[in-house]
Amino acid sequence: MRTFNRLLLASLLILSPVAALAEQSAPGEPDVTIRQDGDKTIQEYRVNGFLYAVKITPKIGKPYFLVRADGSDGNFVRSDSPDMLIPAWEIFSW
């Protein structure tokens, strides 16, 4: 019985850091920032500070999502019409 208790204690001591590590690596829920802009409500979804989606709810009409078109910072497209191209031309720079 004494050896069983020692084995049980040893296994618990070995597995406790593994459980803590698994808990930390699990993805968390996104941070949602809600703000008002005129007559629409804007919800920004972020994970680890990375903005990946924006939900816009107008006062009149259906809400829609803007999602990243690629990995760039400011290129978002509507999720309901992903084929819509948004021009990203640089006209002036200095």
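The above is record 1. Record 2 follows with the same two-line structure.
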Amino acid sequence: MADQLDPDCVFCKIVTGAIPATVVRETPATLAFRDINPQAPTHVLVIPKTHYPNAATLAAAEPELAAGLLTEAAAVAADEKIADHGYRMIFNTGAGAGQTVFHAHVHVLGGGDFHEGLV
């Protein structure tokens, strides 16, 4: 499925520019943008520019790209000044785990203390 986009996928439409997003980082293989429904003061999504339905299928097909998402997530945390305090990286895989957009992505959340009410 590499090098393909799903014409019905919201995140693929963000990759092509058909849907606007607030982009915070971009590489040739990944795109990072602010979540439109943030669950923390900092909530950024990092996605591959190729369509995979979830993190597991991405990791099986392109482990280097899956690792690249983690590298970019760490770079987002540094850019957003949340790396030193701490942050979460979350992959939801499957509807039962809360995945609502079936395009692999990692949530980068931070900017507060999670034990004090952040998700």
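The chain has a mean pLDDT of 93.
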